[in-house]
Specification:
CATH architecture: Roll
Order of helices and strands: EEHEEEEEEH
Number of domains: 1
Strand content: 25-35%
Helix content: 10-25%
CATH superfamily: Phosphoribosyl-AMP cyclohydrolase
Largest sheet: 4 strands, mixed
Distance between the termini: 39 Å
């Protein structure tokens, strides 16, 4: 179904809130993450920095329950429509990873406030 060879083994995966339609994050899946997501119903990704599978929310409790999966026309991108348990998808504590807007002068403007303190949650 998915063409992992075309993309070097990693498929871009967009997580979108099932109810609101808000884009929550972009991550990547390898074949094992894809199979784990299908088997468990929990969004599972491949962490490029850790080179390991990553179940979203395993540490923070902000898991993503998969409600619907869509595949693009080229079989190389996944859209997960999820119920975002715990409200925040972003490791910064924001609801969405896309919490910055580029203004007309090229500056970044932060919109929204974090719903949790990442230092408290991740103990860093």
């Amino acid at each position: 179904m998915l063409d992992f060879e075309k993309t070097g083994g990693l498929i871009p995966t967009i997580a979108q809130d099932y109810e609101t339609g808000e884009v929550l994050m972009l991550a990547y899946m390898n074949k094992a993450a894809w199979e784990t997501t299908l088997a468990t119903g929990k969004a599972t990704y491949f962490s490029r920095s850790r080179q390991a599978l990553w179940v979203k929310g395993e540490t923070s409790g902000n898991i993503q329950q998969v409600k619907e999966i869509r595949i693009d026309c080229d079989d190389d991108t996944v859209l997960l429509k999820v119920a975002q348990i715990g409200r925040a998808a972003c490791h910064t504590g924001h609801i969405s990873c896309f919490f910055r807007i580029v203004s007309k002068d090229g500056e970044l403007e932060v919109v929204g406030k974090p719903v949790f303190d990442p230092e408290e949650v991740y103990k860093k």
